[in-house]
Amino acid sequence: MTIQPVGTSLAVDIQHVGKRFKRHTDRRNSIKERLVRGRARKPEDFWAVRDVTLQIPKGSVYGLIGHNGSGKSTLLKMIGGIYRPTEGSITTDGRVAALIELGAGFHPDMTGRENINLNGSILGLPRKDIQAVTEEIVEFSGLGDFINDPVKHYSSGMYVRLGFSVAVHMKPDVLVVDEVLAVGDEEFQRKCFDHLYALRRSGRTIIVVSHGLGQLEALCDEIAWLEHGELQTAGAPTETIAAYLKRVNSDEAARNPQIEAVRDDDGDPRAGDQSIRVRSARIVDLEGKAIGHAETGTTFQISLEITAREPVLGPNVRIALQHESGPLVTMVSNHRVETDFGIVEGDRTITVALTDNPLLPGRYRVHVDVFDFSGSKLLDSWNDAVEFPVRSQTGEIGQGFVQLPVQFSIT
Amino acid sequence: MLTDLYTRRALIFAFANRDFATRYRSSILGWSWSLIQPLATLIIFAAVFSLVFRIKAPELGNGEGSSYAAFLFTGLVTWNLFSGLLTLSMTQLKSSGELLKKVQFPAWAPVLGASLVQMIQVLLELGVLVIMFLFLRNISWTWILALPILVGMALFAQGVGLVLSIINARFGDVMYIVAVALGALYFLTPVLYPISMVDGQNELLSWVVKLNPVSWYVEGMHDAMYSLVAPPALVVIGLLVGGFLTFWAGFWIFNRWSEDIGEML
C-alpha cells in the first residue's frame, strides 16, 4: 500500500476489492439443463481478485504486473466498469476509458472516419468533442487517405494504429491500458509513448498492465504486483519489479530443480592427453550451491571438478563463454589473472568467480580447455561443458552481451 | 432512469448509424430490399389466402368494395414492427457481447440503435401502405391515429424485446423459443383474417385472439387506416400508454438484470 502525501487527490481508490467468478465448467447455460439437472448444486467459485487495496494518485502512471492469471486484467476490467466487484469498492474520479483491446467495436464495413465517430461514442464522448479531435486522430494515426476506406481493407498495423489513436484522443481522466503498448513500428511506438507522457503532463492518470517490465519501469511512477489475485507489494517501480523477478526466478528454480546448470562427465572421448580430465561443470552461488541461472550484477561461480591422473605442474584452465546466438563473449584463464594452481594431483575442484556478473540476460555456453604450464600441450578439451541462463533482476534487458563498469562525467 | 436515454442519445444514434450504414452495404439493391421483402410476402400471402382460402376482407372505409391485399398489408406492417423489434433486440444484444466485455457502455444502446433502424424500415412500409390507400381512394383524417398506435406498438414491442434479450443473454434457448412462439402468435393475431372471423368459432381460440395485446394494436390500425373508423379516444390513449408502461418496465428490468452483462455473454 502506498501512503499519499496530504493534499494529493486520488484518481482511483480501490478498497478491499474482490471478484468471485463461477466456474464455467458446470454452468447451467440452457433452460433444458436447468430443468433436467436443477440448479447447480454447489457452484465452484474462485476468487480472481481478493482483498486488493490500492490508491492511484491523479496524474500518475500506474503499472500492474504479475503472472498470467494473477488477476491483473480482472482488476483492470473492474476499474473500467466492465465487471462489478463482488466485494469492496472502487471509486474513480472522472471518466474512465478502458483499452482492453485496440479497435474493439470497429465495424469492418465502415470507413476509418465513420469508425472514429462510433468508437468515440462508445467510449462516451459527446459528438461535438469527437468532431473536434477527428482530424487530430487522423493525423496521429498516419493513415492519410486510407481513413476513408473501410477498415476491413486495413493491415493489422493500420487497424491497431487507428484504435490506439482513437482511444488516447478521447481525453479520458483515467486511461486503462491492457497490454496494448506494443503496437505499430518503432516510430509509431515512440509517438504512443510521447503521447502517453503528454497525457500524464495534462494531469490524466494512466493505468497499464504489461509484461514488458523494462517498458513499465521506464514509464511508471508506481507499480503494483498481483499474484493469485492478491496484492504482493506496491511502490517504486524498480523495487517492485525486482521483488517480482526474484519470485519468478525462485519459482522457476523450485519447479525445475533439475534445471540447475550442472553437467557431469559423460565419458565421451575428448581431445587432449587426458592427464587431467574435467569431471563436472556446474554453475553455483557464492556458497557453492548449484543454481539454475545467474543474475546480471550478482556474483556467481563456475565450479569444475577435475581428476589429475598424474601430478601436473601449474595447469592453465581456460574457460570460454559463448552467447547462444554464436559470438564468443569472453575467454578467461587462471594464467591470465596470474593464479598458479601449483602441482595438481588427484580430485580437485576449481572455482571461477565472476564478480558482479557483467553478463546481460541470455543463454551462455561454457567451454573448458586445460593446458599444461607452457600453454602448448592440450590436456583436456570439453566443448559445451555446461549451459546456463542469465536473468535480469530489474527487468532491464540491455543491449549487447555485457555491461561494462563505466563512469560518465562531463567537463 | 429514463433520462439516461436522453444523456446517451449520441451513443444510441451512433449504433443506429452503424446499423443503418452497414445493413445492406454489401448488396447491390441496397435498401430496396427492405421493400422487396415485405412486398413479396404480401403478394404470396394475398394470393394464397384470398384465392385459395377465399378469406373475404371487410368493407373498405370509403364504401367502394374491399381489398384483401390492403387489409393484409395494414396488419403486416404492424406485425412486422412487433416481431422485428423482438427478434432484433435478442440478436443485437448477443452480437454486442464481445464489445461489452471490453468497453463499458449501457448494453441497451446497441439494442435501441438497431430498433431505430428497424423503425425506418417500418416507415418505408407505411409509405407503401399509404400509396396503396391513395390509389384505392380510401382516405380519411383517421389516418393520423395510426401514428400514436404504431408508436405504442413500437414501445410495447421494445419493452418485451428488452426483457427477452437479457434473458436470452443468459439462456441461449430463449431466441429459439421466441421464434416458435412468434410463429404461433402470428396466426393468433388478426393479420391474415378479419377478427370477426373468430367470432362463433372455438370459444378458447376466440378468447386468445382477443386477449392478445398485439391484436389490439393490429385492430387499431385496421380501424384507422382500412375501415377509416376512429377507435375511441380512450383506446388510442390506452394503446399508447400501455406501450409506454411496457417499455418502461422492460427498460427497468433490463437495467436490473444487465449489471453483470460483461460476464454473461
Automatic annotation (TrEMBL), chain A:
Residues 31-253 form the ABC transporter domain. The keyword ATP-binding applies. One of its GO terms (molecular function) is ATP binding. Pfam families: ABC_tran, Wzt_C. Gene3D superfamilies: abc- transporter (atp binding component) like domain (2.70.50.60), P-loop containing nucleotide triphosphate hydrolases (3.40.50.300). Keywords: ATP-binding, Nucleotide-binding, Transport. InterPro entries: AAA+_ATPase, ABC_transporter-like_ATP-bd, ABC_transpr_TagH-like, Bact_Polysacc_Export_ATP-bd, P-loop_NTPase, Wzt_C. Signal peptide: none annotated. GO terms for cellular component: membrane. SMART domains: AAA. Belongs to the ABC transporter superfamily. PANTHER family: TEICHOIC ACIDS EXPORT ATP-BINDING PROTEIN TAGH (PTHR46743). This is Unannotated protein.
UniProtKB/TrEMBL annotation, chain B:
Keywords: Cell inner membrane, Cell membrane, Membrane, Transmembrane, Transmembrane helix, Transport. InterPro entries: ABC2_TM (IPR013525), ABC2_TM_bact-type (IPR047817), ABC_2_transport (IPR000412). It is found in: Cell inner membrane. The chain crosses the membrane at residues 28-55, 67-88, 109-135, 141-167, 174-195, 233-254. Its main location: membrane. Residues 29-257 form the ABC transmembrane type-2 domain. It is a multi-pass membrane protein. GO terms for biological process: lipopolysaccharide transport. GO terms for cellular component: ATP-binding cassette (ABC) transporter complex. GO terms for molecular function: ABC-type transporter activity. This is Unannotated protein.
